[in-house]
Amino acid sequence: MSTRTGNATHAAAALALLAGTVVIAVLLMQRISQPRIDASVSQLREQRLAEVLPPGEWDKALPGDTIHQLTDDAPTPIFRYWRDGVAAAAIMQVIAPDGYNGDIVLLIGVDAEGVVSGVRVLSHRETPGLGDDIELRRSDWITDFDTLSLEAMPRDDWALTSRGGAFDAFTGATITPRAVVRAVYRALVWFDEHSTTVFSLPRERP
Amino acid sequence: MTDIDTHALIVDGLWRRNPALVQLLGLCPLLAVSTSVVDAAALGLATLLTLLVANLAVSLLRKHISEAVRLPLQILVIAGTVTLLELLLAAWLPRLHESLGIFLPLIVTNCLILARTEAFARHHTPDRATIDALATGAGFALALLALGAVREIVGQGTVFAGLDKLTGHTEALPGISLFAAEHGLVLAILPPGAFILLGLMLALLKPGR
After folding, report:
1. From the CA of A158, how many Å to the nearest CA of chain B?
2. Element (H, E) at B59
3. Do B23 and B17 contact (CB within 8 A), yes or no?
């Protein structure tokens, strides 16, 4: 009986000791890597923001003024940009929830009139080789949105060509591009209704 | 004697008892991540590295591992190793980290690793455990790589597309293009294609055993 208790104590001690070691190792590694992880996340975002922002000089450097959750259905966050004190552009971060494999996070740049200056994918989990043609590094499909607006294109054209719309599907993948087209359209409709509010919110002091 | 052992361990891991092609262990990552050579190589290497650390740690601790708590101890070692690896990749190769997604943390549940620590490392010296981990891990990685190469070529007409994810280049490396992507067989990229191609590979290799 006493040896069994001894064994159990030994086993528990070994388990506790190993658990402690593993936790310490993980915490140390997290301390070392977290600054780099944060840096690479914000670097990627700023690079993408720069790609969808209309060209030219802006009053405030990237990422710009940030608004979180303006209304329940609002894109979040929204980055705002001024030129010579005049509101001139916004970048909306939106989620396309109806992709083939989870959320597709998009950045949509628009000028004050709601004309698209660029769309980029921030992150996605679509099938490599099929759905990842939404990435600029794989295909220039995503640039089809450039210079479009609700005014310039009727509602029915915001769909894939197979449904009589203006956007091509990819070989073997229709769900992914459809999700992106829908998300961009939704964001533009939202912006059309709320652009005044977006730009009238008090501006952060630089 | 030692030499024969080493030789047998290597042949077992790579070929005779190849974890993926003979024992059919770790099929979930094998089928899910083998859509391209680069992703397959990355997950193969990550699995090999995890197996190496886990086998070595379990072997070193083998005298202190009592029968009753051996499973929690081994899982703890494996989970800890994978967590460290995940943090490293997220910090230094973020694009690769994103591309592997959930399959990186899921290495914890790859039965191949627990199978080796439980059946082998727990009863053998660290040098044997190291050789076993290298051979078995390489066997798994090579099977993953072979399936990844076939699927990428048949599906997209390329090899090594997206190599920048492994090297940390910022510009995209398109890889070697063999034919236009639209002539590719899309099925090869899709999950059913993975099952069919693995089945064909197993059938082709069968006579060689």
Report:
1. 25
2. helix B37-60
3. yes
Question: Which phi and psi (to 5°) does residue A111 adopt?
Answer: -85, -175
Domain annotation covers residue B195 = no
Ramachandran sector of residue B177 (left: φ over 0; alpha: ψ -120 to 50; beta: rest): beta
| The total number of structural domains that make up chain B | 1
pLDDT surpasses 80 at B168? no
Residue A127 has what DSSP assignment?
Answer: P
pLDDT, tens digit (0-9, with 9 covering 90-100), for B123-142: 999 999 999 999 999 999 99
Query: A22 and chain B: CB distance < 8 Å anywhere?
Result: yes
* Percent of the residues in chain A that have a pLDDT greater than 90, as a whole number: 50
Place of tokens 């790589």: B145
Distance CA A25, CA B197 (A): 40
pTM for this predicted structure:
0.80
Judged by a CB distance cut-off of 8 A, whether residue A83 touches chain B is no
Chain B residues close to A44, C-beta within 8 Å:
94
DSSP structural state of residue A126: P
- Whether residue B188 is contained in a domain is answered as no
pLDDT category of residue B1 using cuts at 50, 70 and 90? very low
Centroid of chain to Cα B163: 18
User: What's the average model confidence in pLDDT over B85-101?
Assistant: 87
Q: How many residues does chain B have?
A: 209
Measured CA to CA in angstroms, residue B163 lies from A15, A198, B36, B91, B181 at distances of 41, 41, 10, 18, 17
Find the domain containing B69 and state its range.
2-148
